[in-house]
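Before relying on records like the one below, remember that each one covers exactly one chain. Contacts with other chains, cofactors or solvent are not represented anywhere in the record.
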Amino acid sequence: MAKKRKKKGGTGKFVILLFLIGIIASLSVLFRKEIVNTFGPLFEKLSLVEERKEVVLYFSDQDGEYLIGEKRKIIKKGDFKEEGKEVIDELIKGPRGKLIPTLPSRTKCLSLKLNEKGVAAVNFNKALSKDHPGGSSAEILTAYSIVNSLTQNFPQIKQVQFLIEGKPVETIAGHLSLKQPIASNPKLIKRQ
């Protein structure tokens, strides 16, 4: 009798193990999309770790008068529009050194599109103007940190048209007209 119990106990454990494996396999099939969405970006980043591109982002100097370049590495995506959006996202994150941020922290770049004339339409959420601290110098540095960061890193981009929530914007904080696309202004860049 003792031998039979051992066999039944072993068989019972084996059946439970098979049952658990079946449940795990069923759940993975049912939730495959969620698993891919959750872990997919992690796998993409791990596989692209060596595929990086160095860019220069422009932030405000301590005095709020000039832009100073800060080198940063972004993931090389092969599509300059996606890379341009990543440059804007890095600008929003702010500088890593002693420079001053030029974009409000709650700003989001919703999209970046380029037309055949080299004008990049960059669409932001309302935080770009709503959370902006104001002042003519701050507004100029905000606009040109975006324009110079895009035009200096991507030769395809000649000018930038600002949009907020998909609509053309006249100004960010009331001092600089953004009705027309803006070209870069290298005179605002201070070399170190």
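The first strand starts at residue 52 and ends at 60.
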